[in-house]
Amino acid sequence: MVYENSYRIDKNKNVVFIDINLNFYREIYNEWDFSPFINRDLDDDLFEYLENSILEIPKNKNVEIVIHIPKKMKNSQKEINCKNGFKNYFGYQIRKVQTSVKDIRKRMMLSIVFGLFLVFTESILQKYVTNNSYLSLLNEGITIGGWFFIWDFFATLSYKQMEIYSKKKNLIRLNAAKISFKYK
User: Fold this and answer.
1) Tens-of-pLDDT digits for all 184 residues of the chain?
2) In Å, what is the CA distance from 106 to each residue of 6, 37, 99, 156, 161?
3) Cβ(17)–Cβ(7) under 8 Å?
4) What are the sequence ranges of the domains in the chain?
5) 6: CB partners within 8 A, 6+ apart
6) HSE-up of residue 173 (Cα within 13 Å, Cβ side)
């Protein structure tokens, strides 16, 4: 298994460790975010690394994020703030995904309603289209538009929603991961 070469594993506890080596606590956070630590965004590269790591680790394994920091930097209060900051950030990301799910559902409903409306309109116009090339062209455009919106509904239903639910599950796994500090 590939992940076994990339991560430390405790087979007895069924835990895979995601190790992060830092020199300072502030390296966890986005350098341009000056909010209090508990509300700061994680560093983009760190967040991407965590997202990619969780994808590699099987779902039946527990995950622990281990932050390695020099001994001279040890600060219990910063540890607590960092742990809370991680949880807040992952919680925020989960809420963002939930909002995007709502937006996608709205888009899907609009697509299917508009698509069915266009297909229904085309079927009515079909009765009035004779040899008039302009009406015939308009009718074909309405048909294509209707089927496009119906296709968009099913494409979103099958692909985009699965992608977002997968992302949400991974964020929930990251949020549930134990966070610990080791000093070197």
Assistant:
1) 577 888 999 889 999 999 999 998 888 887 776 666 566 788 899 999 999 999 999 999 999 999 999 999 999 998 998 899 899 999 999 999 999 989 999 999 999 999 999 999 888 877 776 666 777 788 888 899 999 999 999 998 888 888 898 999 999 999 999 999 999 8
2) 40, 35, 11, 11, 12
3) yes
4) 3-95+177-183, 104-166
5) 53, 56
6) 24
As given in the structure block, the two tokens for residue 64 are 């622990």
